[in-house]
Design goal:
The structure is a homotetramer. Chain A is mainly alpha-helical. The first copy, chain A, has one domain: Orthogonal Bundle (Tetracycline Repressor, domain 2). Chain A is 78% helix and 0% strand. Chain A is built from eleven helices and no strands. The longest helix of chain A is centred in the N-terminal third of the chain and has 25 residues. The radius of gyration of chain A is 19 Å and the shape is elongated. Chains in contact: A-B, C-D. Chains A and B meet through helix 6, helix 7, helix 9 and helix 10 of A and helix 6, helix 7, helix 9 and helix 10 of B. Chain A binds a DNA duplex through helix 3.
Chain lengths: 201, 201, 201, 201
DNA sequence: TATGAATGAGTTTTCATTCAT
DNA sequence: GATGAATGAAAACTCATTCAT
């Protein structure tokens, strides 16, 4: 009646939307089905369980965003290019709701411990991508000496998740926006701190 | 046989514990009652609804921790004292579960939108305390010029929440710990950047 | 609103009735609640799960019937008294539906293996009572020599369950009745075979 | 690649296996399809409904076993031959699961009353075969005078079903086996009681 | 002949909440 | 102040069955 796996897609999309707009605790099979306008039982027909569906939705957005990040970041060679690219990617994430879904899955993993290892596993590629990019762009600099790219990557992801959590609390995003804008202004400073030749004066 | 409002206290404590150990989505009236070993209906007798109880639990931990922070931070005059005090307070938070409860309430606020403004309101004192402390300790420095204490405070809280979210994903806290340790190592750097007299001693 | 545990009783009775009239596979929480005219959730409020309720219903009828059997059988001293008493008890069982419930629980235990050990355990007292009664009434006879009371007891219970299973297949109970009548006619024969003095001619 | 109605056969076999291993209440179309490794809808394509399939599975095993019984019993002329043959057939039944399926269908017929008359009908040939065999082998004897072969047949089937029900409750079949062994030992006694010439050689 | 997709009604169980006592 | 009882709605998930292809 419908194109082969368009229904599967529809369910994934509805799950993603529900997770984004209503959060983990409200992402029930009924809510997803209502959101997507399909029969509740279809969730189980295609995914077997809510856990599986939620993780699949996480995979789905992860794949899309990782691809976008990989493509965009590949072009960034300098610290200021990195800042510009990252700022743009962040905006896309915010608009798509990607990080909301990620942070809701992480927050929800405490209520459903079975999800924790699966969700964690899905965070790894981000840490790796972040670390690799930092390494490539920053290289050896006085700051990466004392603050390894591995930890820096972890810190960035951490910050990013926290920012998303808070963003949703406030109706508008004024403060989070302001913070990001500030961070962008730090770029010259970061450029200095992280510049490859930054060691010898 | 028990102090007048000890029951209320018991319920608050049980709500806090449940929120911390099982997360927002699993913090049901039954779970709280089981945790505290009291009758499920008491939740509604004392608090009227789960939402109210959860917010009261947030208030409860907030008050305790804010008091502790205020006392401890009052003694910090220099950047390195601030780092030391903050590190100690963070450890206490981690041990008590305070930040877990906060981040779970924030994450849950998307599923129960009625909670959002209430939870947000309860974040304000933290931002203010953070800002005031930064202002007092850092004063006017080249960095606070370009990165206002208001935004810095927001950034710190953001980071802190994100860190807690991630901590729970991993069984051990190895990575989050490592990151915090690194941050502490940054203190000399921060001391330089934020010193009131702006650089040369 | 109601007498203390009359609701519990009501649920037990409804479960028993449902098991008897509609069988194991149709003894759902909804069916039981409809039968008893109470809220479906009460089943779980009082018994926690359907398995527990079904076993409790089995316990309930078991206790009643065991008590009746113990009282009635205690008076039977001779083989013919035993036949008469047993015939009467069987009729009561048939009328109450006791054995139907037992056999349905046994049959259902293959679909819900968790029930099997519990159900089996609840059969033991019957085997014991049966064996003890046979021992007391038959004593040492040529036949109990070659056919021990333990096995005889098992055989009687076996037969009884089978009879009940079949009874339900037929709208009327004509054939099962006829069989029981025949068995009663066997009494003089049994009297001879099992008479204590039956050995020496 | 497969014989014309091998699919039908496959489904029958899977239904039989499911009924035997998981019982009536768990013999769902999905369970059968999983068991046989075919599409769930095939059940309805070939049999129209679960009821029909289950009855067809009963027919299937009935036909096979009835044929085996007819062949084997035809050779039994004396009581001891009958005992030996029956013992062997019983063992085959136990191994194939035939009686389990029969007793599960009988037990399930109370939950689905539509099945009852159909299942009953499928018991008739057994009663007839049993009766005819008893008549042929026992003929007119003092005991068959007072205990007609019709009732005796019914009693044997009854006992047989009950034995199967109980067998499944216990993990091992120790007790049921012991009982059957005992019954076999009764053969000399039975030979005497049922001998055509009524007693004195 | 066969199947993947789909569904409405059902399953067990849990939810927040109310209320009489 | 406290509680056991009760409930309607909702949770995740399964059911037998249909249907277009």
């Amino acid at each position: 009646m419908q194109a082969p796996d368009s229904t599967r897609q529809q369910i994934l999309q509805a799950a993603f939307d529900t997770l984004r707009d209503r959060g983990f605790a409200a992402a029930t099979s009924r809510a997803v089905a209502e959101r997507g306008g399909f029969n509740q039982a279809l969730v189980f027909y295609y995914f077997g369980s809510m856990d599986t569906l939620l993780l699949a939705a996480l995979d789905w957005t992860n794949e899309q965003r990782l691809a976008a990040y990989r493509t965009a970041l590949a072009g960034a060679q300098t610290v200021d290019e990195l800042f510009a690219t990252a700022a743009h990617l962040f905006e896309e994430d915010r608009d798509s709701g990607h990080v909301t879904v990620v942070s809701q899955m992480i927050a929800g993993s405490i209520a459903r411990p079975e999800l924790a290892p699966e969700t964690l596993e899905r965070m790894e590629p981000w840490l790796e991508l972040c670390e690799q990019t930092l390494e490539r762009v920053l290289g050896k600099s006085p700051l990466t000496q004392m603050f390894p790219t591995r930890d820096l990557a972890y810190g960035i992801v951490t910050f990013y998740l926290g920012a998303n959590l808070l963003t949703h609390l406030e109706g508008d995003r004024a403060r989070a926006e302001a913070l990001l804008a500030r961070l962008r202004e730090l770029e010259p400073l970061a450029s200095g701190l992280f510049s490859r030749s930054g060691g010898a004066p």
